[in-house]
Structure formats: structure tokens, C-alpha cells
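Margin note from the TA: students keep mixing up input and output lines. Inputs are the sequences; the output is the structure of the whole complex. Example:
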Amino acid sequence: MKRWGWVFAGVLFLDVLCFPFTIQAAAPFYEGKTLKIIVGHGAGGGYDRMARLMAKYLPKYIPGKPVALVEFVPGASGLIAANQIYNITKPDGLTIVTVDRGLPIAQLLKAEGVRFDAAKFSWIGSAAVEATVLCIRSDLPYKTFEDLLRAKEPLHLGSVGPANTSHQFPILLKEFLGLKINLVIYPASAESMLAIERKEADGRAGSYSSLKPFIERGLVRPVIRGRVVESGIENLPVDEDLTKDLKGKAIMAMRSAGDLMGRPFVAPPGSPPEAMAILREAFSKVAKDPELRQEAEKFMMTVEYVPAEECLKVVNFVLSQPDDIAREFSKYIKF
Amino acid sequence: MWDAFIGGLLINLQFNSFLYMLVGCAIGFWVGILPGLGGGTTLALMLPFIYKMSPEEAFPFLLGMHSVVATTGDITSVLFGIPGEATTVATIVDGYPLAKKGEAGRALGAVLMSSLVGALFGASFLAFTIPIVRPLVLAFGSPEMFMLIILGLTCISTLSGHGKRGLMLGLMSGAFGFMISLVGQDRQAGVLRFTFGQLYLWNGLSIIPVMVGLFAIPEIVDLAVRGTAIAGNVQLGKLGKGVREGIKDTFRHFWLTVRCSIIGSLIGILPGLGGGVAQWVSYAHATQSAKTEEERANFGKGDIRGVLGPGAANNSKEGAGLIPTVAFGIPAGSGMAILMGAFFLLGLVPGPDMLTKHLKLTYSMVWTIAISNVIIVAVCLLFINRLAKLTTIRGNLMIPIVLLLCFIGAYTSNNDIADLIVLMVFGGIGYFMVKYRFPRPPFILGFILGKLAETYLYSSATRYGAAWLLRPKVLIILAIAVAFAVYPFIQKRFRKEVLSEPDKI
Amino acid sequence: MTLCFALISIGVIVQSLRWPFKTALFPVIIGSCALILSIVEFSMSLYETTGGRTKKKKQDAMDFKLSEGVDPAVARLRTWTAFGWIIGFFFLIVLFSFNIGIPLFVLLYLKLHGKEKWLISILMTVGAWIFFWGLFIWLLDTPMPQGWLIRGLHAIGIGS
């Protein structure tokens, strides 16, 4: 009799252990909750559009179908948002942030105001790859990068300031490939495109997705790209390949690294693993959603999920650079 | 082109589109009136709602809201001395004193009518320049932009109050504003200037908390000091009748209104300069229409022309602002940048296509601006008496509400508490400026234009070497700027000469 | 005031000299102009007040002027009170968050400062709160930071 009693108690005990799990299977983590997607930049830009796209389609792939909202915390190129989510936001899986892809670089350069460790965020992944290209005005006689190198006049390139890809990519080309350029700084990329139309500027470097509308229109044509590739520009020469300087190769590789995680999404460090798993799965599935792909194409955006491990690899690659390389890097790249 | 013109109208008159436009207008009405809550922020907030709409419905909605904001923003400026929008600050300078004199009705009538004239002008400007838009915008390169900014800055001298002393104070004010605009990450070298280690200051100070603090807080404090209603101790009867007077004023000074509309449109068309500048340049121009020194002294105390000018300009720049946005995909201002986001959401690409394939849609935007403003002005005129009566409510009741609106407005621009600190700091600065007779308009001008001037100076110099100074358009604009700056002094000299010849009749 | 301004200009120029040429150019130029102007202005006002040739014309700024009708002592008291309330409002918001701070402020101001009747005070408080909550939280879902007190309470364990 006693034995049966023990068995019974044992079964009961096991049942009780399983109970919370059954409860969890019954009520999804995100049921009835709101997922907040914070954008670390101002409204209207590429990060904004990606966040809105995600907010619209992600709930389909998250069990419990939460409501997804987009919020803006602009300032300091995404640093304020990154600091906030690292230090203040509760790691309950309900808030995620899309940060600037230059985040690890800011940390490496010990930029003023960095109060986070990029590697410690709970990484969800990146919603897209953002390749960098240099485009020049179509009506210029140069057809390939080699033509540009042989040009007698310096090329006037529009940029937005030294903390921006539009400045960094060409500076490296000038330093390590000998491209003759004159960087002219405009208040915003829109003004630099206008300058190109006016024939005041000859071209601009930037993310492929932001330049695509102008390429399709025929205003500019791409001539050289960074290591990271997107469909449509595979055949362009790569800056790293063209330079023989080892230091140059390393620095260009570091600059390009961020492109792989073009639209990174992170959650506060220490977020619950189930939530992270759900989010990662959702991001990966949503990138294949046919409706989303259609809409993304309308905006000329490409959505491609880059898993968290890949993003972390990039982060660690940048952060683990030896001091002397970091110092060289900081000569050209500012955040 | 004509069939697109009519076609645009027909789009707007479709039931759905018209309905959405009305909703947009209603939203815009409140956004304009609430200080700080800006057209730009609201556009961003409205974007999720247009996901399900077609372009013909979405644009009347968005533009109906945005183009009306400048009209109703003037109302807050006049009634409370608080800028309803970043673009309606100039209306405070003469509008609010009128309200304090008990002539709120007149000021409102004038501001609404001039806003309507400005809006219609801006819309027609947009409509008729569509064919020549591309060469027009392309004609202004970096050097020309720099010169135009200098032109804007020379308005500081006209806004400075008269006499050498006044000019000095004005210049100091402008210099101070200029210096404040340089706070943040420098564009040339990425160096952080004057940020004192605060991340918040990386991108510089936002205009809304600065502006609301500078202009609104001193008014609130003064209201508390006076202990009366805004309109002082004036009888109720006068208020309502003033409206018709105000409307008539618009037509009495019709050419001034039109000239200021032109100024608004010309400035609105250039990306980057935008509404902040247009209102002040037109205000300066309005003051120049004063024929004597004594007359000019009245500006700032309630001259109706000081209301007409900016009222028209901040509306006419709306229509013009669409030009580079639609034709080039280059936003003319922050509101337009968000509007471009809408373009993408609807699957449209701003650029030459909008002027060819989608011309009808572009014209419907023109009509939206025109029609929505007509509707709003009509509605406002109906309610004007009620609105004007607000100035008779006890100050103590108004203050918490107004203060509330200021705080919320300042906060929502960046969702950052630090904005509230900025609000209070500049409130204090504004108070001292008023106390020691430093004029505030030059400060705002310096603040808006400072960093922009620096950027364009460097881009001109980097691109063209020293040669940019000799470009023809640059020299022409420089000449206009110099003329603007010395006009007050020439006028004085001229008057003296005339006065010294008493036999000439 | 002018003196203040001069000091700020000096500060600006000194700091700017440390920066690379392009970055420093504008601050230095504008700072110098400001400095010169403020020195001139300062000496002119000194000259005036020390009984020099008094200028008859009052140089008015083309801008709003503080009302003159009130007795200066009263005015000063009221001014300080007004600023006090503004700063107080700020702290209410920081401590209690907008949600609670706003109605609290409206109520306190109307009752304590305005000495309004209870009915009006309550009506306006409720009105203000509904307006704020309705528009910004319900309709627009604006993110509002939690007040420090609330955050403190949460940290201790009270509340959700």
C-alpha cells in the first residue's frame, strides 16, 4: 500500500512539475501584449521604414499576435536609444530597438557617450543587408572605377559629414587607392543628391538601398562597392580587393563589417530566452513573407534576415581589433 | 497640362478623398492650435493610418492636415503670444500686442485672411511653376544658397529696432542665436561643439523647445504679473466687430500681402530654408513698408501689417515647399521629409514621374492646399468671436492650460525630458532678453540660419575654391542683401532730405 | 546682461581655439563680433548711467515689452512666483510623470495660486487630464517616461 502511495505521490509530483509548462503552452508569451519597436533615428529615414514594415508583418509570426508599435528616440545617431535600452529598459521581451549599424564602431572608437557593450545586447538579428556603393553621375565619361582612378580632375563627392558612410567610404578610397576626390559637405543627403542634379557634385557614396531610386532613374551609376554584397551590384569591384595595403584592407573590412547587419534589431541584455527565440524565429519567417516582399519592393527595400550569430560575429570582429589598428581606423572613421 | 489641372480637382471632389481631406483639416486645425505639437511630428504619427489608403485618398488627408497647420498656428500666436507652430512665431510680435489692446478680433481676421491669400498664392505658384520647376530649383547652387542665407540674416538689422543702439542689441541677439545653433556635432570634422558631455546635445538644440521657451514663457510670466486677462481691461463689445476690420485690412494692404506671399513662396521652394526663415523675411519686409521712423516704431506694438506679412508667408511656403519634394524627391523641410515617407508607403517615387505620369495627383495636391485652407478659414471666421473671447478669461485660468500645452509641446518633439529643461532655460533667457530690451526675433533667425550658413559656406568654398564669390547670381543676391540691410538708414536720410525742403508740396 | 554676454563670448572663443580650423572658424568670428559688440554696449550703458550725455530717445526693441502698469515690487514678487510655478511643474512631471503631474499641477495652481472655487478647479483639472490622456496616450500612444517616485516605488516592489 505504501508503495502505491509513493508512486501516486511521484506521479502527482511529476504532474505538478509539468503544470507550468502546460500553462505556458496554453497561453503564448505575447498574448495580449504590445511589442514596442524603438527607432534610434528620426522619422522618415531607412531605419524608420524598416521598423514600420516589421511592425506591420511581425505579429503574424509571433504566437499570440501582439500589437506592434513603432516609437522614435532620435539623437546622437542612435546612441541615445542604444543607451536607453541597455541601461533603462526592462528586459521583458516587450521592447526591441533598431540601432545604427555603426554601433560597434562607436564602441571601438570609445565615442563620447557610449554606455553600452554591443556584444551584451540580446541580439535578434538584422532585417536586411545594406551594401555600400559609390555612385557617380551618369553623364560623366567615366564608366569603370579604373577610369576614375585615371581622371585628371578631382571628383567632387557630396557627403554629410565625417561620421557618415558617405564620407568614410570615399576617404578610404582616397587614402588607400589613390582616388582623387574633393569631399563637399551638405546639410543632408537630399541636398547632396540635388547637388548632383545641379552638376555641382559628381557623385555620392551611400547605402545601395538609398541610392537605388536614383540609379533606377538613371541619375547616377554605381562604380565600386564594399565587401558586403546585395543583388544587383555583385559585379562591381570591391574596395578591399583593389588595394594592396594590408592596413587598408583591414580598415576597409572593418568599415564594411557593419553593412552585413544593415538594420540591426536588439533587445535589452538579459531578455528572457523564450522571448528571444520567438522573436528570432519571427524575424526569420517574416523575411520570407510574400506580402512583405511585395511591399518592400515597392519601397525599393530588400529584406533579408541575418541571424543573431552572424551579427554577433560582426560585433566581435570589430571589437576585437588590436589597439594599433583601432588607432589607424580612427584616423579616417569618426562616429 | 490643363486636363491634369481639372483632373486634379476632380480627384479631390470624389467623396472619399474629400472626406479624408476634411478629417485631415480637422486634425490640422487642432495641431496648429496646440503649441509645440508640430505639423511634422503629426505627419509622422499619421503615417500608419495611410497604409490602407490609395494615393488619391492619402494625399488629401496628409496635405489637408499639413497645409492648415500654418493657418491655425497663427491663431494661437495672436491670442496667447505662444507660437502654435515653429512657422508662426513672427505673427506673435504684432499679433499678440493687438490682442492685449483688446483688438484680438481684428488681428485674427487679418491673420486668417492673409493666411488664405498666402495659401491660395502658394497653391497657384505650385500649379503654374510645375512646368518650369526643374530649372528653377537647379539654378540655386551652394553659393547662391549661402547668399540667400546671408540675405535672411540681414533681416536681423531690420528686425532690430531702430537707432544704432537698437541695431547693436539686435546684432548681439543674432550673434547669440548663431552661436547657439553651432552646438552639436560639427559637420566638417565631427568635433563635438559645446556639448558639455551631454548626448542630448549631439545634434544641437531642437527648435521647438527653444522657441516655445523663448517666446511663450516670458508671455506667461508677464500674464501672471499683470494679473488680468490677456486682453487687459477692455470691454467685451469691441472684440467681435474687429474681425471685419481685420479682413478689410488684408485688402487695404493687399499688395503687401501679395508681396509677402511671393517672398514666402520663393523661400519655401528652396530646400533647407523653409518656414522658419520665410516668416521673418516677410516680417522685415512688412516693416520696411513703414514710411517714417515713428511708424516703424509701432511695429512690435500692434501694427496690423506685422500680422499680415508673416500670416501670408507661412502659408504660401507650403505650396512652394511641395515643389522640390514632389519634383525631385528632395524634401524642402522636415515635414516634407516625412511626406516623402508617405510617397514610398503608397508605392510612388517622388521625382520626374510625378510631373509626368502622375501629374493629376500632383495637381490634386495643389487643390487640396487651396480648398482645405478655404474651408478652415471659413470655419475659423465663424468661431472667431468665441476664440477672441478667450482673451477675456482670467489669466489665472489660462496660465495652467497654456503652460501645460507648452510643456507637452516641447516634450513631444523628441520624446525627451531634457527638452523640458531646454524649455525652461530658454524661458529664462527669453525673460531676461525682454527685460533688457534685447530683441528676440534676431536670435531666432541666427539660430535657424547659423549652422546652415556655415555648412553652405564650406560647401561653396570646397567645391569652387574662391571662385564662388564671383558667380553672377551670388553677386545679385549680395546686392539685394546689402540693400535690405541699409534700407532703414537710407530711408531716414531720405526723409530728412524731404523734410528739409518744406516748400516742396 | 551685456556683461554676461561678453563673458559667454569669451568662453566660446577660448574653447574654439582648440579645434581644427574649419570647426573653429565660425565660433571664433561670431564670438569675436559678439564680444566687441557687448564691450561697446556695456561701455555705452556705463557711460549713460554715470551721468554722461543722456540720450533722450528710448531705444525700444522691436519686440514684446514687459507690461509697465504694475507696481515694481509687486511685479517682482509675481515674477518670482510665476517662475517658481513653472519650475515646480517641471518637478511634478519628473517625479510623477505627465499622467499624474499634469492634473496635479492644474489643481494646485488653481487652488493655491488662483484661489479659484473648488468647482472650477476640479472641472479644469479633469478637463485637462482628459484632454491630455485622450489625445496623447489613447490616440497617439506617445511614450511617457515614468516619474522618479513611481520608479522608486517599483524598485522597492510596490506596484506592477
